[in-house]
Amino acid sequence: MSFLSTAVQQVLEDGSFCAVATSTPRGPHCTPLVFACSGGRIWLTTSRGSVKSRVWKADPGAAGLIRHGGLSVVFTGTVKTYDALDRNTWAAAVAGATSIARATARFSKKNARFFAGYAMDARQVPLAWTPPGRVFVGIDLERTALLDDEGVQEGRGRWGGETLSHRTFRRLKGGEPALAALPHDIRAELGSGGQGSLAIAGVRGPVVVPVRWLADATSLYAALPAETLALAGAGPDAAAALTVDKPSAWRARAMAGAMVQGTASLFVLDRLGSGAKTARAIAASVHPAPGALVRISPLRLVWWKGWSSGSVQVA
User: What are the tens digits of pLDDT across the range 203-261?
Assistant: First the structure.
């Protein structure tokens, strides 16, 4: 990873989860996965029947976000999958046997605590969560950016550029809470705000950025620096997915989360005329240095808790 700065490498080495996004007909699909970094690649596993696994057979593009401490690394890259049951991947697996072996060892060591959790819950773990039901994935990094709460600290590769912003903002009235369609226990676990990962369909595919989110009586918002939002080069309206979760340090059955797929309306605060004061107040209530506010209009909710998951259309 000599092409990556020391700060970026540190986040990739020490981060616990990677929010990984792919492009689908419904817009970006983004969920958190455990991972490891080896040989300049991000390595992870996913179920053979997952949305990501199916999409990557036709479109190998991926985007991701890894957090550690007060820093985040945003990246995009190209996926290579290795599946013992897919003969189309066998030649690549043979050619890359040494690097795959190193990555497997690194992945196992880094995520040993989760394997211990699986061992404790062995009788309840579905086949899709066990090694025979999973695909090993390597992501070749093409673009990276190092972020903090103030914005972009450094970047590598060509990112999106300027965000196209709505010029006016108006708080919506009526309707039901944005997360009302989630099961009650999931809503209770996630609360009404916190850290999240926002996958936005940009000019060069999806980009995943760190946000602080808020669900009020009628709307779902995400706040972040304008410079961070500009990495996607999207707007003023774009397909998006907001992913929020309650992770566990070692036990998959204790994890809960949700992904809200829909349309994101982008508001760069310094470019707003009417409604600027209201937008600034909402953004400042959740983020220490907000330069932009995103309102997500949900079309579909996907949720998970332990081994269970489900989805519901909301519009």
Answer: 889 999 999 999 998 899 999 999 999 999 998 999 999 999 998 775 777 889 999 99
Kindly report the pTM of this predicted structure: 0.93
Residue 308's closest CA among 133, 183, 176? 183
- Output the six-digit token pair for 234: 């999207």
**By C-alpha distance, which of 237, 164, 202 is closest to 28?**
202
Distance CA 205, CA 203 (A): 6
The answer to whether residues 279 and 272 touch, using CB atoms and an 8 Å cutoff, is: yes
Distance CA 111, CA 79 (A): 21
The reported pLDDT for the residue numbered 27 is 96
Q: Which residue has the tokens 């107040």?
A: 281
Q: How confident is the model at residue 88 (pLDDT cuts 50, 70, 90)?
A: confident
Identify the pLDDT of residue 252: 74
Secondary structure, 3-state, the chain = CCCCCHHHHHHHHHCCEEEEEEEECCEEEEEEEEEEEECCEEEEEEECCCHHHHHHCCCCEEEEEEEECCEEEEEEEEEEEECCCCHHHHHHHHHCHHHHHHHHHHHHHHCHHHHHHHHHCCCCCCHHHCHHHEEEEEEEEEEEEEEECCEEEEEECCCCCCCCCCCCCCCCCCCCCCCCCCCHHHHHHHCCEEEEEEEEEEECEEEEEEEEEEECCCCEEEEECHHHHCCCCCCCEEEEEEEEEECCCCCHHHCEEEEEEEEEEEEEHHHCCCCHHHHHHHHHCCCCCCCEEEEEEEEEEEEEECCEEEEEECC
Residue with tokens 């605590």: 113
25-37 confidence digits (pLDDT tens): 999 999 999 999 9
Q: Please, which pLDDT band fits residue 131 given cuts at 50, 70 and 90?
A: low
